[in-house]
Amino acid sequence: MRKDPLHKCLFPVAGLGTRFLPATKDIPKEMLPLIDKPIIHYGVEEAVLSGCRDIVFVTGRSKRSIEDYFDRSTELEQLLEQRGQNELRDNLVRISEIANFAYVRQSEPLGLGHAVLCGEPCLNDSHFGLILPDDVILSEKPVLGQLAEVHSERGGSVLALEEVSWEETSRYGIVEGLELGNGLFRITDLVEKPLPGEAPGRLAIIGRYLLSGSIFRHLRSAGAGVNGEIQLTDALKGLLAEEPVFGLLYKGERLDCGTKVDWLRATVKMALRDPELKEFVLDIVRKEGCLGR
Ligand code: G1P
């Protein structure tokens, strides 16, 4: 049973990024750099490599720089051309050409489910991708593409899963499911951020989803859930009763960039993967006298 390919991907980016203040007073947290690209760029690349050509951002106040980043910058391009820096110029132009970009606003911070609902007018396909860009995932095959493969064979919705420790379950949506083999589960229940000791398992939803368009009906009728917000997990629970929802233990390495410490770890890990930067990092650490203690 082959299903339609994936064309669209939604990025909720309206959050205020308070964990990074004052750095994010005037810059969206999604625009903080991970080495030489803003965090959001990695998620968009993943969506494009997974086959998406339409990217929809659900933005909020003070997120204009995301729009500017994915648009042409003619003055800068002209300047680089005059200076003969054509390769750099072409790289900048390419950013605006990798996909079609659309923007909708989420005027109130009413939760992830509400952010997804705000994107509905731009998402009229039978299914769409959803990427939470705080997680950058390094993988041979893009994770959203891994979910799209499951969808193309089995239909339904597909969530990326990772096994987390019992102490961490309260940070995630946790699923229960029947194992189908090769890291694939047919999900039977979900709970948002269960308290320690109350989690039904350790399989956590990570910020990659392939969602059936039917999710909107469930989001519209979802009341306030955990933290008084409209939770995507609650709508998925409703969807389960009607359509299959699968979970896939994705293949890849997740770099959480959602807090200062996580972002720092992600930056160092990325630098250590680059042969040139690796030497710089090790050299700094050596000179600071921290190695070998
Ligand atoms: C959201 C979802 C949660 C999921 C998590 C992944 O929570 O509600 O189910 O596990 O993303 O990052 P948030 O991190 O927005 O609080």
Bound molecules: 1-O-phosphono-alpha-D-glucopyranose
**C-alpha Rg, in Å?**
20 Å
Largest beta-sheet details: 5 strands, mixed, barrel
**Order of strands across the main sheet:** 8-11-9-10-12
* Helix share, percent: 25-40%
Question: What's the overall geometry?
Answer: globular
N- to C-terminal distance:
58 Å
Approximately how much beta-strand content do the residues carry?
25-35%
How many beta-strand segments? 13
* Residue windows where pLDDT falls under 50 for at least 5 positions: none
Number of H- or I-type helical stretches:
10
Mean pLDDT: 92
Structural class based on helices, strands and sheet pairing: alpha/beta
- Spell the H/E element sequence: EEEHEHHHEHEEHEEEEHHEEHH
Structural commentary:
This protein is α/β, with parallel strands linked by helices and 293 residues long. It is built from 10 helices and 13 strands. It has a 5-stranded mixed barrel with strand order 8-11-9-10-12. It is globular and about 60 Å long. The mean pLDDT is 92. 1-O-phosphono-alpha-D-glucopyranose binds next to strand 11 and helix 8.
Question: What secondary-structure arrangement, pairings included, does this model have?
Answer:
Elements: E1 8-12, E2 33-34, E3 37-38, H1 39-49, E4 54-59, H2 64-69, H3 74-82, H4 86-97, E5 100-105, H5 112-118, E6 127-131, E7 135-138, H6 143-154, E8 157-163, E9 173-181, E10 184-192, E11 203-212, H7 215-221, H8 232-240, E12 245-249, E13 253-256, H9 260-273, H10 275-287
Parallel strand pairs: 1-4, 1-6, 4-5, 8-12
Antiparallel strand pairs: 2-3, 6-11, 7-13, 8-11, 9-10, 9-11, 10-12
Helix pairs in contact: 3-4, 5-8, 7-8, 9-10
The structure holds 1-O-phosphono-alpha-D-glucopyranose.
1-O-phosphono-alpha-D-glucopyranose binds next to β11 and α8.
